[in-house]
Amino acid sequence: MKPHILIFFLCIISNAVHSQPVWQDNFSDGNFTVNPPWQGLTSHFRVQNEELQLYDTTLSGTSWLSTGSTAAFNGFWQFKVRLEFNPSTQNFAQVFIVSNLADVSGAVNGYFVRIGGTTNRRISLVRRSGTTNTTLIESVDNVVNTNVVNARIRVENNNGVWTLMFDTSASVNPSYVVAGTAFDTTFRRSSFFGVLCRFTSTRFDKMFFDDFVIQAEEFKDTVPPVVTSVVASSPTQVVVRFSEPVSNIALLTGNYFISDGIGAPITAQFLPGSTTEVLLSLSAPLQINKLYSIRIEEVTDLAGNEISTTVLPLAYTVVKAFDVVINEILADPTPVVGLPDAEYIELYNRLNVPVSLDGWRLMVNNTSIALNGVIPADSFAVITRSQAVALFPANITTIGVNMSSTQLTNSGARLRLFNSNNELIHSVTYSDQWYASSAKREGGWSLEQVDPTNFCGQERNWRESVHPSGGTPGRRNSVNAPNPDTLPLRITNFSIPTPTQIRLIFNKSLHPSPAVFPDFSIKPDPGILAVNYDSVLENALVIDLIDPLIEGLLYEMEATVRPIDCQLAQALSEVYYFGLPLAPRPGDVILNELLFNQPTNGAKFIEIVNTSTKVLDLSKIKLSNVEGGQFQNIQDITADPILLLPGAYLVITNSISGVQTFYNTECNTCFIQSSLPTMNIGSGNVALLNADLEVFDYFEYEEKMHSPMIRNPKGVSLERISFSSPQNDSRYWKSAAQQVGFATPGYKNSQQAVESSTNQELEVVPKTFSPNNDGFNDFVQIHYQLDDNNYVGTLQISDLNGNLIKTVAASELLSDSGYFVWDGTDEKGRKVSLGIYVVIFDLFHPERGRKILKSSVGLTY
């Protein structure tokens, strides 16, 4: 059978015969053709029981009637709407109270009230600009969520402040509920009043209108125009924009004069389709980035109001990277501290000439926002949504744009600023982790750039505002201070998306437009086809290869033309190694160090090590918790195929700076910022998994595992003493030594087991140890070498009087060789006194019987 197709149309009522600021119509005369006259598709409507009824006998279609109205200001509009159905997105009514066109189905400039039309079933006041609708006021949800809607609606305007009121009780004497207010003076003139119906075939006769009353003023223009911007679009052309349509007097060249020998323009003409923009053609070119002035006078608007003589700065500006920078960000305005309740981004123009933002765009992640307006020389401009402009002080440059009230994600987003030539001017990828204060992170405080000449400092150059109001929009930042970029540019990691492509990841952003593009040499040479910037990351390059990389082969690479950073400093001259990554297998990578009780304002971390001879793909490795036998809080280390070289250490943390600020980091490239599974302070667990959720390693930690010499474990990591130690055995994890700062992120652990150097059945290494957490002989290793792997052993420590101090291992099935560790504590975890202690290894074999091995060890502090 054929599918059913639901067709719906737009029905519009409109009329254009005469205009009057005050009128009413209750259809008591039984018609809509006189007093006042309505015109349009009259066959689609009728008056029934003294109500105007939609009656489209074609069952679906578009219809309109209208009457003229110049009422647009300081007054009210009220009417009744009855819908004999529950309105939806396909069946609803609109009443245009202000319109410049008779046919309000077209590109109208005006305002209308919508009854229904959304899934939330609200009553709304909407501004229509051509074909774009902007909601100004909305009721709460479901006010018209009923099978029969009886709504009396009243709209008031008081000097540009709109108020929307409604009563859905069907009472003859309405008791209006205020839906809200909004200030908007976009359109101040009206020619028509109209009603719009949108309906499907089952609603062709279910819409009724009545009791129209309009009592409002026709707007009288007594305000002269002002110049809103002056922009040099080329060296010989200048566009002057006025606040309202102007008369042909604006086309007289003598009304304009430019300083420094340029003089009056040759011609002045309106831009196509506009009477608010005048294009001036100059007799001589403007010099690039030179500041001129332009005088404008005697221009009048359509009402004859003459502009005041105006002198403005003018420049033909060529903007290159970092001439304009993103300087302040408020992503979470609530709870309000003292700033407007609106998201904003502040731009800073570093040039000594104004910069036009016409044709510019701001990218918020993947959303493009068109910009406009002018940033004065050496000054700031606040970018916010259009509805919030009035919330900011009038003495700062505030530019309204089409963005939502929640455009900026609280947790972070990537911001990129492009000029009219689509050149990247500046970028910032902000994060709420840049807030040092958890209270300020909750909202109401902006992030401010410290040094606007440190263009790509990212988190190293941004701080939370310290201004009492929460931020400094349009003004110098409260944290402004010299903060030069001294971090050398270097490669931190590789990823290999395909065998013929390499992505180089740097420790900071690269210059977006270097004079000479970077180049590299690779050995063995697969041939380089092209080197390009990464399409997503500002700190990455992509190398396309001629021949594919060979599995198992380790490559060597160095730059022949070194990349440069945003300050034009070259990258370090270093040799890097990489290879085609393989998916890790059990035993290839292990957990090696955990910090679960971080310092104040520091960050937790997990360190892993590639113990194999293979290049591993980090995107195939995950971290998680285990609860009730199930994996919980599974976290990918990275979505990119980043490389982990043989023997390499990697620190995973949610804040690299939160680790590097507190600990020595011998390998600055051994860090990756990523989400961690839950790591509670008292106890917890961490599992290391592959993409198939196969367990590589697992460890259950407790704070009491720390050395008794550690009085306060805050900021102290637990280190694995050997890559070959058993999985999830607390005996082989020790507190990081005080001498290294209580953690060793990214390099060899301070606590390391020593391999046995003899073939003795029982060997104690060292002979004397000192468990004082200085990183030297903090524990004793008790090695054993047996003639078979079927022994069951119990290892105990006693004093010279035979008193049991600690059972290190109890009836454990042993391999033919291995070792145990004693850290100088008793059964209750207390440190023991210095002295000589006896090591007793009680062994039993099902065929060879029992034997006891003994040795001794000295303990000192």
Task: Describe the SSE topology.
Elements: E1 8-14, E2 22-25, E3 39-40, E4 45-48, E5 51-54, E6 65-68, E7 73-83, E8 92-99, E9 108-115, E10 123-130, E11 132-138, E12 149-158, E13 161-167, E14 177-183, E15 192-200, E16 207-217, E17 227-234, E18 237-242, E19 256-258, E20 267-270, E21 277-281, E22 292-296, E23 310-314, E24 324-330, E25 344-349, E26 355-356, E27 361-364, E28 367-370, E29 374-375, E30 379-385, E31 398-401, E32 412-418, E33 424-431, H1 438-441, E34 447-449, E35 462-464, E36 491-498, E37 501-506, E38 519-523, E39 528-533, E40 540-545, E41 554-561, E42 576-579, E43 589-595, E44 605-610, E45 616-617, E46 621-627, E47 630-636, E48 643-644, E49 649-653, H2 656-660, E50 671-673, E51 683-690, E52 695-702, E53 718-720, E54 733-735, E55 762-765, E56 768-769, E57 780-785, E58 792-798, E59 804-813, E60 817-822, E61 835-845, E62 849-859
Parallel strand pairs: 30-31, 49-50, 56-62
Antiparallel strand pairs: 1-15, 2-16, 3-6, 4-5, 5-16, 6-15, 7-12, 7-16, 8-9, 8-15, 9-10, 10-11, 12-13, 13-14, 17-18, 18-21, 19-22, 20-21, 22-23, 24-25, 24-34, 25-30, 26-29, 27-28, 27-32, 32-33, 34-35, 36-37, 37-40, 38-41, 39-40, 41-42, 43-44, 43-53, 44-49, 45-48, 46-47, 46-51, 51-52, 53-54, ...
